Amino acid sequence: MQLRNRGELHLLKEIRRRFSPAPDAPDSGVVIGIGDDAAVIDPKGKKVLVTTDMMNEGIHFDLAFSSPFHLGFKLVSVNVSDIMAMGGSARYLFLNISMKKDVDEAFFWELYEGIASAMELYRVELLGGDLTAALNDTVLSATVLGEGDRVITRGGASVGDRIYITQPTGDSACGLEILKSLTPQSREAVRRERFAATGEGDNGRRDLEMIVHSSATIVSWKRTKPLLARHLMPVARDPRPLLPYASAMIDVSDGLFIDLSRLCDESGVGARVYLDRVPLSDALRYAAEIMGLDPLVPATSGGEDYELLFTAPADSVPGAFCIGEVTGGERVVVDRDGREMPLRGEGYQHFGAA
Amino acid sequence: MQLRNRGELHLLKEIRRRFSPAPDAPDSGVVIGIGDDAAVIDPKGKKVLVTTDMMNEGIHFDLAFSSPFHLGFKLVSVNVSDIMAMGGSARYLFLNISMKKDVDEAFFWELYEGIASAMELYRVELLGGDLTAALNDTVLSATVLGEGDRVITRGGASVGDRIYITQPTGDSACGLEILKSLTPQSREAVRRERFAATGEGDNGRRDLEMIVHSSATIVSWKRTKPLLARHLMPVARDPRPLLPYASAMIDVSDGLFIDLSRLCDESGVGARVYLDRVPLSDALRYAAEIMGLDPLVPATSGGEDYELLFTAPADSVPGAFCIGEVTGGERVVVDRDGREMPLRGEGYQHFGAA
């Protein structure tokens, strides 16, 4: 059934029914939840963190690649990631969704399933939002509120700190390249996949092999799956293990080097990054070889990994890779032969010149 | 210059420069403002109110009627109105803006001027947001955070309470009808007008007369201006004078009767509304007569007035019109001859059947 035959009020009523918090949740901090003019929370003396992000059809996502489930999950993840990048814990979600009237109701509810799946993973509660018709593209935006005691900004790095990344980057950008090159059949098989948010579980597709379009190359589902999952359903990294160490932090949304440049801008520092220390996942190495790519390109300039990039005075931080150090000089990259080059903060820029 | 030649980062930097709070504002509650992964506020023990609303081109606005300045102002107003409808004070603003790459930079900055004008009026501070490209339509969304001590929900009305409205409704809907019927020249003159947010001031257009399209009727600028202003640049009503009285409250965004029905739903009560007590503005009476309309139609079912509709046990409330009473029975309207009819909560519904 198309949304035009359902009506906004029916949908809102159903969302409210499905997402109203259990009445036995006294520690939720929620004074007024979904359904009034505004939600009301009681932060009980804690600081409140707020972030908002938008995802537009044709710009941030392509419905030929992403299912509504993927989109819903990712919308929550990218916002939660911004809260986590400040060292906070995500608590509350507000959604703005606009789509065409002829969208099928099943699309709408699959989007909500993806949202609900992420809400469960991050333990965030839906407290409000807006649902409107659109003339053309589907536009999604979310606002996430969180809480935190110690806040870690982009501006706290000091000369002598080390630079760390939580996990290898580039997987998401490589996953997107794979998606673009798949045959329509392979792509649709990927689109139907609900990647387990933990990265485990195969949903019975253990033996799926995917065929790449132009070259008729066959790529292994099992080996490329982490890349596809990272692009379609990225999981925000929990910053809590890093809080005792981190002096400055940012999440890698636009690319390792551009986001490092932003951190350096705010901290007023330089950086030296060693290319041979930039971690690369096995999946990225595998796919890059097949695609004839240098894996360091997506690892340093690919966006949407949502790994945490941080600085810390410590010589090592459990669960993170040291890729360089904070300096008082220029921002440079050291290649495998020890040669220094300027670090270029390149990445995706909206409204950038074509 | 088109946005594609400017780049997102330049625009964001400029927004940050223009909107960063003055460093001598220690009571702002802002720990971290624009420019990090998330904003951080310290509510200092107060409750936090949160609302978010979207405005889509072709659905909520038509750029042939509204200037970017109008849109920016209205975007802030409709969100502030939701905070005020809970009895709160608006404090912080977050924006999501997406528009096509070929939009002229002047459009973008005029939008921001409208936003800044509303920010000044309501004393809200811009703390963050997202700026992205769009394939087709301009989509705007805002999130406003506020604070409040006593929160007034839609659910607090009791049998015997009176029903009040702050100012006449229907002006906005009638203003839209006038806009639709103007000649292109008259419409463009209205579009260029920056209505003073207070409703005062004429910007030297005191003598402008506007010509209505189909009938070649001339309407008076001075007499219709309040209607046009209410539609293009609605001002949210300050609830503070009502706080000692109000038991339940909602802002009239979709129409007086539909929003009253929502208040009744949440309070679990009935209502009796006297049509001859529904206030009508002089401007609405004037325009309705020219257009051959019953002014009660826009007054009871027209949307986007953003007046406050509330209930109170008191027999009278200064600065508000009593239009009826809360009952334990059905929701009824009493016409001028004393006849009762069912109150129909009709108003605009997204995804409603055509």
UniProtKB/TrEMBL annotation, chains A, B:
It catalyses: thiamine phosphate + ATP = thiamine diphosphate + ADP. Pathway: Cofactor biosynthesis; thiamine diphosphate biosynthesis; thiamine diphosphate from thiamine phosphate: step 1/1. One of its GO terms (molecular function) is thiamine-phosphate kinase activity. Mg(2+) 2 binds at residues 53, 82. It comes from the Bacteria. Its EC number is 2.7.4.16. GO terms for biological process: thiamine biosynthetic process; thiamine diphosphate biosynthetic process. Mg(2+) 5 binds at residue 254. Mg(2+) 4 binds at residues 37, 51, 82. Mg(2+) 1 binds at residues 52-53, 130. Substrate binds at residues 60, 304, 348. Keywords: ATP-binding, Kinase, Magnesium, Metal-binding, Nucleotide-binding, Thiamine biosynthesis, Transferase. Residues 246-332 form the PurM-like C-terminal domain. Mg(2+) 3 binds at residues 37, 82, 251. ATP binds at residues 112, 129-130, 154, 253. InterPro entries: PurM-like_C_dom, PurM-like_C_sf, PurM-like_N, PurM-like_N_sf, ThiL-like. Residues 35-146 form the PurM-like N-terminal domain. Reaction mechanism of ThiL seems to utilize a direct, inline transfer of the gamma-phosphate of ATP to TMP rather than a phosphorylated enzyme intermediate. PANTHER family: THIAMINE-MONOPHOSPHATE KINASE. Belongs to the thiamine-monophosphate kinase family. This is Thiamine-monophosphate kinase.
